[in-house]
Write a structure and sequence with these properties.
about 140 residues; 8 helices; mainly alpha
Length: about 140
């Protein structure tokens, strides 16, 4: 982790780090075009912010199953399982499983973006996504 004082090896990044230490690491990773999304990923963040645009089942389909999606999405050794016990979050996780684990991510995003105007996208952008606009890929 060249350039990040105190973190010479990837093994120096441990589960018991304090939030201040984690923020320092995340800021450093951004300089390489690596971004961290919470609580899951950018796909979940888009679904969370633009629910009405994403919650459209495929024609002839009834949408997500009502079963618990936690193990499927997070894995059996998933982290922050208590976070997903909230019914609203669990419902979004069901939609996530339906939209992004059983269908094409690019086509899912394109379909949802078709339900949004440029003004809606601009007015509702998440603060955490702003750095992506200026990211230059090498």
């Amino acid at each position: 982790m060249e350039g990040l004082k105190g973190y010479d090896e990837a093994s120096d990044i441990r589960d018991d780090l304090e939030p201040k230490e984690i923020r320092t690491i995340l800021q450093h990773l951004r300089t390489f075009g690596i971004f961290y999304a919470a609580p899951l990923d950018l796909d979940y963040a888009m679904l969370q912010k633009f629910q009405a645009a994403y919650k459209h089942p495929e024609p002839g389909d009834c949408g997500p199953h009502t079963s618990d999606p936690t193990n499927t999405v997070m894995g059996e050794a998933g982290t922050r399982l208590a976070y997903w016990s909230n019914e609203e979050r669990l419902e979004l996780l069901r939609w996530y499983r339906y939209l992004f684990m059983s269908r094409s991510k690019p086509s899912t995003h394109l379909q949802a973006l078709g339900h949004l105007s440029d003004g809606e996208l601009s007015a509702n952008r998440r603060y955490g996504c702003r750095p992506l606009r200026s990211c230059r890929y090498r």
